[in-house]
Amino acid sequence: xxGYAPDWVxxxxxxxxxxxxxxxxxxxDLADRLxxxxxxxxxxxxxxxxLSDDAALRLHRVLGGSVGFWLTRExxxxxxxxxxxxxxxxxxxxxxxxELPVAAMxxxxxxxxxxxxxxxxxxxxxxxxxxxxxxxxEQWRTRCVGTQGAFRRGTARDGxxxxxxxxLRLGExxxxxxxxxAYDRERFTQAxxxxxxxxVEPPAVFEPRMRGxxxxxxxxxxxxxxxxxxxxxxxxxxxxxxxxxxxxxFGKTNDRFWFSxxxxxxxxxxxxxxxxxxxxxxxxxxxxxxxxxxxxxRWAADCLIPPSHAVELQRLRDQRAVRGFxxxxxxxxxxxxxxxxxxxxxxxxxxNGLKARFEFGEESTPA
Length: 367
Fold this sequence. Notes:
Layout: H1 12-23, H2 27-34, H3 38-46, H4 53-63, H5 67-92, H6 102-107, H7 121-132, H8 137-145, E1 152-153, H9 161-176, H10 185-196, H11 203-216, E2 220-223, E3 234-239, E4 242-247, H12 254-270, E5 279-281, H13 291-304, H14 307-310, H15 319-329, H16 333-342, E6 356-357, E7 365-366
Parallel strand pairs: 1-5, 2-4
Antiparallel strand pairs: 3-4, 3-5, 6-7
Helix pairs in contact: 2-3, 4-5, 5-7, 10-11, 12-13, 12-16, 15-16
């Protein structure tokens, strides 16, 4: 809620009374000198009536002090009064925090870290409202959670709606800070070709290069650590004139990361006519997925391993063969292993040593 809001709130009338008493006047004397009714002066003194520009001018002439002093005194009083009322309202909304992943939001830096004692709840409510950009829990339920019925999920499994809303908002805020040119489809397509070649690189190399290529094409690209219970690996959506690709590193292995990225990129390329949908995906299987998700899956798979080479997958039986194939097609061996496991040509526990494990801002390490 931004700073300390004291329990006491002093109206400008306290200062008026101090000056009147110094002069030995009554409120009736002050009313006569100001040219106001006694009732209006009493309301000014008690803070029941706002101190207007006209009142500030009259007080300046009668009691001294600049016009700015009186107007500032009034503004500070009204601000503190509003803050005091705000605290009471927020205290009444404390139960809303039980719907939110508060601990995860603190860990992600969305709100300040603090102990969740009773006296802190009003502050946390205010910070959560500011984070989501809504005026009340009801607006949050309508805007941030209620609209999730329109999300296009690529899996039959649903995550926790509040956790999804928090993760999406973290990405929105990152994207809003970017200053990008208008979306350029041709440049985006060219960027994807170059990014495919970056699958062999560690994050310290590919992250900044990816961002540069995508941002130059007018595509927002943000990495937001996973929020527990959200179960989300990535999302593709449009924010105003620019598309956004947001990834969570859910799963943390490079085969999942790269498939998720190219899957979300496919939504932007293949489904650009639908700019209202939020394409929300996890990194697992997609039983019963709708046609658009199946299209994005196929496009991502074919981009990473072209169909002309896919027949060779059947013949890969050991790590040496996988490495050789990966070199020929120009992708990381972990991507090949992920494809083999997905197509049941390998058990999910086999050859995981060829995958890389990602951490933000760090070199990839063996899984």
